[in-house]
Input
Amino acid sequence: MKRFRLFWAAALVLLTAGACQQEEVASEENTRLTEQETLTEEILVDLDALVDEALVRQMSQLKSATTEDNYLLNSCPVVTYDKTAEPKKMTIDFGTGCTGKDGKVRSGKIIVTATSFENATSERVKTFDNFYVEGKKVEGTIRKTITIDREDHSRVAEIEEEVTITFPNGGGTAHRVARLTREYQLNLMGIKKDNQIISWGTTEFTRTNGIKVTKTVQEETPLVFKMACHRIVSGIVIFTTSDNRTWSVDYGNGECDNLATVTNGNQTRTIRLK
Output
């Protein structure tokens, strides 16, 4: 009987150790997913702001003034506007490499089409030609339809994304399909680094291992991206996966740091995003 009890005690220890190990592996995987999707979100919001800057620069007659006022673009990319094309087409060509005012290196082209760039409520479509930002390749299509253009110069747009980002050095790919609402807050007029981009909606992406992840952001707790630091600084995300994992991420109270709080069941920990 004593041997029998010892056997079950040893088995219980092994089972408990195995369960703890599985929890640690799942927790690490959740952190990696959080980091990759946060980076993907920040890249795409950044691109949205960059294209808006290029449009303002192209539409303005005071190009030298708008270049100085830009927060992302300098004179390095070649911006062309084809008024004869149908739909109208603007191309931002970063060539083989161009360092923006934000210190990020971009190469390749962003191509934007619209029935009219002058009409703020028209649909705009972004595509990419061998486009890279900081070594990450961006491919796919982004549709943006501005639904409200307020008197205070803030805007609301509906965004549809089907994008693949390939990370360097064997970091894998993230294929992302998103339906989002995005609000653009200009705050202090003329000071672009004070601008904020606020997003909510649903995003689905597939990992290279086949696991599907759904990311949900409610309008009451949206993601807030600050131009001042090019980071998500607040908002709550709920992640659910096709292999039945669920966790939440809280990006904080608006500070320009790289910290987030991850809650998985009864466990909560603070992570430092790369």
